[in-house]
Amino acid sequence: MIDILAKFKEVQDRKAKIKGAEYYQRRELKFREWDVLTRVCFLLNRAGIPHPKYATENECPDFETFENGGTPSWPVEITEVLRPDYRRGDFWKSDTFRNGPINFEPEPLEDIWRPLRGAITSKSTCKYPKGTSLFVYFDISLGSFSNWGTPFEEQLLQEHSIKPFGDITAFGSVYVLSSDMN
């Protein structure tokens, strides 16, 4: 079992040393999953919300988590949501040859929530153990929102109340981490 909050520091230290394109290579997939798991748990801890304390790697779902003393908490599946037209690998590869700051200002998406709905729907069709939590890394910049001044969390909850994001009842809980959250 690995202490999740201790792993958070290790992941952040290692992430700072990895060049952009390397972080997104296939061999770093499990590391990126740890990145999402540790950041969600770090934010839950900071907010005083109960969260798992320890984790072990799995195949499906991605992690088995534990409370203090090794009592099983819940399984966790990790997924990522990108802009439909975004090819991260191509972006980072092209940036490797440039000097200077990255200037990426995407046009607002017609339906910013479509990729999230697709990811949740896709994951909800899989057979996970009862109580599995879905941790979603929403890697779409707030610059893609037409209403970027309104906090992400407010827009997310408002949109879900109007048109639910798929069958979230397939999960014990769903946590969405925006790439713009700290």
Describe this structure in words.
There is one protein chain. It is built from 6 helices and 6 strands. The protein has helices spanning 4-17, 20-23, 29-46, 88-95, 114-124, 152-162, and strands at residues 2-3, 54-57, 63-66, 72-81, 133-138, 173-178. The protein is 36% helix and 18% strand. The chain is globular and about 45 Å long. Strand 3 (63-66) and strand 4 (72-81) form a beta hairpin. The two termini are 26 Å apart. The protein has 182 residues and is an alpha/beta fold. The chain has a 6-stranded mixed sheet with strand order 1-2-3-4-5-6, sandwiched between helices. The model has no long low-confidence stretch (mean pLDDT 80).
Note the total helix count.
6
N-to-C series of helices and strands: EHHHEEEHHEHE
Percentage of residues assigned to helices = 25-40%
Radius of gyration of CA atoms, rounded to a whole number: 17 Å
Q: What class do helices, strands and sheet pairing give?
A: alpha/beta
Mean pLDDT: 80
Number of strands: 6
**Which segments are poorly predicted (pLDDT under 50) over 5 or more consecutive residues?**
none
Strand content: 15-25%
Major sheet, described briefly?
6 strands, mixed
Rounded to the nearest angstrom, the distance between the terminal CA atoms is 26 Å
The geometry reads as: globular
- Give the strand order, joined by hyphens, for the main sheet: 1-2-3-4-5-6
